[in-house]
Design goal:
Blueprint lengths: L2 H8 L5 E6 L7 H8 L5 E4 L8 E5 L2 E5 L14 E4 L4 E2 L1 H13 L7 E4 L3 E2 L2 H10 L14 H9 L12 H19 L4 H8 L10 E2 L3 E2 L1 H15 L3 E2 L1 H8 L5 E4 L23 H7 L9 E7 L2 E4 L11 H8 L6 H7 L10 H12 L11 E4 L2 H11 L2 E5 L9 E10 L4 E3 L2 E3 L4 E2 L6 H4 L2 E9 L16 H14 L2 E6 L7 E3 L2
Helix pairs in contact: 4-5, 4-7
The chain binds guanosine-5'-diphosphate, 6-O-phosphoryl inosine monophosphate and magnesium ion.
The site of guanosine-5'-diphosphate has 22 residues, from helix 2 and strand 3.
């Protein structure tokens, strides 16, 4: 059987497939949505917004999409790509991505936007960035306005994509949306706001007004222009998807990852949408039970996190967290300063940088270094409660040259007595399934099982059984500790570097 036949066997009986991430994002959702794109008739995003950065590599060409579904590059007659109602829709980013498609000679007639998707406006990006100025309470957001958009939705003052079709109502709603924000922004130094609004993502100063902070006329004008470009793409996408359940092949593309979900993630260091499979289904207009198969992606045997928040297995611990959160730290600087760092470095902080170099772990949205650490099974066990057992392991090839692999199989709790509901957590307690509470995770010492590395190039391997024995041992250990089923192993960024395990 060739790879496509194996894949089709894996998907036999499946009409609706969901791809989600079981960690803190950046696990390869883009690669896999693209990989399944020729199978699908409808591909839909349901959560998050332009905070996502999904990379697709086809031969030597790399594409990064923030909003449009990652299957867009696979042009198939009749295929529809959808941005669902749960998505924070930023017209500015969409306009940029449509330009990429145009350059590739792809039409975007088959790209539909839910009329109910949440509309991102300049003030959302401003509020997001103002809030992140203080180091206290900082989340390390992507600055794409995500928190404020979802906040407005729940505060019942949000706008939707449908408002682009009714510009009179748009203006009324815009004014209402701005009123409290302007009051708050007037309390801070106007120059700070001005500087933020000079950013190209916020119109390069176009929307700034010295007196009123926001120039409502300019915002209206810009969004009127967007409406002209997109109006034919706005639709009742929820009905389209629902009406095709069981009839067409539907692929739901997750964004972020379970551990970043507002509902089940490592709160408060999370994003503001529910990026679990439950949120994904809802954000496309479906029920979770409409999904036939959920594949949860897991980076292994290392993992990453961008932004603030506890990360028990982080290589270099707090030193790494601080370094990666320092403004101005990027790939160029690290290459200059730590050119010798490798995955085998005796110093853990340097080893973390070595892993970052080997895996090109720099944010696709912000360019920030992604914090690196060993695979954490207590967190994985927790995450699979929501995604189920079916798993795609990615980026294993990154550790081809690593001599000793460590897997965290449990934590030892090292904090003070802490009450979790009816249970008292005590110093020395063993935790095998993570408890996503900031106080608990911050006091969890990882316990490791160490393995010899496989020390060979796996990037051309095409079957599970021909993976090196030392790697198989590690995969068996992961399976036995978590109960996951490894359906796919990814050994490189390209479509054809994909092993189906059936
Ligand atoms: P996403 O946000 O989940 O779509 O992931 P990102 O695109 O942010 O980051 C994943 C990165 O890893 C991208 O640059 C992919 O091209 C790359 N990638 C995906 N799978 C593999 C793999 O198995 N091996 C290697 N070396 N790179 C991979
Ligand atoms: P993809 O889809 C990794 C993180 C940010 C920050 C937190 C809140 O590419 O996997 P936000 O801007 O959403 O308010 O930021 O969430 N974050 C991501 N980390 N991958 C992502 O998306 C992310 N989207 C948000 O770094 O810590
Ligand atoms: Mg990403």
């Amino acid at each position: 059987m060739n790879n496509k036949e194996q894949r089709d066997k894996l998907l036999s009986g499946v009409n609706t497939l969901a791809i989600v991430c079981n960690q803190w994002g950046d696990t390869g959702k883009g690669k896999f949505v693209d990989y399944f794109a020729d199978w699908a008739d409808i591909i839909a995003r349901g959560t998050g917004g332009a905070n996502a950065g999904h990379t697709i590599r086809i031969k030597d060409q790399e594409y990064i999409f923030h909003l449009v579904p990652s299957g867009i590059l696979y042009d198939k007659i009749g295929k529809i790509n959808i941005i669902g109602s749960g998505v924070a829709f930023d017209p500015n980013i969409i306009a940029e991505e449509l330009e990429i498609l145009k350059k590739e000679g792809l039409s975007f007639d088959n790209l539909l936007f839910s009329r109910n998707a949440l509309l991102v406006l300049p003030q959302h990006l401003v509020m997001d960035r103002v809030k992140e100025i203080n180091t206290e309470g900082k989340i390390g957001t992507t600055g794409r306005g995500i928190g404020p958009v979802y906040t407005d939705h729940y505060a019942r003052i949000g706008l939707t994509v449908n408002d682009l079709l009714n510009m009179k109502n748009f203006k009324e709603k815009l004014k209402r949306n701005l009123s409290d924000k302007v009051k708050l922004l007037k309390l801070i130094d106007i120059n700070i706001v001005k500087e933020i609004m000079n950013h190209p993502h916020i119109g390069s100063g176009r929307f700034f007004d010295e007196k009123e902070i926001f120039n409502i006329e300019e915002i209206e004008k810009a969004y009127r222009e967007f409406a002209e470009i997109f109006k034919k793409n706005i639709a009742d996408t929820e009905s389209i998807i629902r009406n095709n359940i069981g009839k067409k092949k539907i692929l739901l593309e997750g964004a972020q990852g379970n551990l970043l979900s507002i509902d089940i993630g490592t709160y408060p260091f999370v994003t503001s949408s529910d990026c679990s499979v439950t949120g994904l289904a809802k954000g496309c207009g479906l029920k979770e039970t409409d999904i036939d198969l959920t594949l949860g992606i897991v980076k292994a045997p290392y993992m990453t996190r961008v932004g603030e928040g506890p990360f028990p297995t982080e290589l270099g611990g707090l030193e790494s967290a601080k370094w990666c959160g320092t403004k101005g730290v990027n790939k160029t600087l690290e290459k200059e300063k730590y050119s010798d760092a490798t995955v085998n470095d005796a110093n853990e902080f340097n080893q973390g940088i070595g892993v970052r170099f080997a895996g090109y772990e720099y944010g696709a949205t912000t360019g920030r270094p992604r914090r690196t650490g060993w695979l954490d099974l207590p967190l994985l066990k927790y995450s699979t409660i929501f995604s189920g057992p079916h798993t795609i392991l990615t980026k294993i090839d990154v550790m081809d040259k690593c001599e000793k692999i460590k897997i965290c199989h449990a934590y030892e709790y090292t904090g003070e007595n802490y009450q979790i509901g009816e249970k008292t957590l005590k110093k020395g307690d063993l935790i095998e399934t993570a408890i996503p509470d900031k106080e608990v995770i911050s006091a969890c010492k990882p316990l490791y099982t160490e393995f010899d590395g496989w020390l060979s190039d796996i990037t051309q391997t095409t079957s599970y059984d021909s993976l090196p024995q030392n790697l198989i041992k590690i995969l068996d250990f992961i399976k036995s500790k978590t109960g996951i089923v490894i359906d796919i192993v990814s050994v490189g960024p390209d479509r054809d570097q994909t092993i189906i395990n059936i």
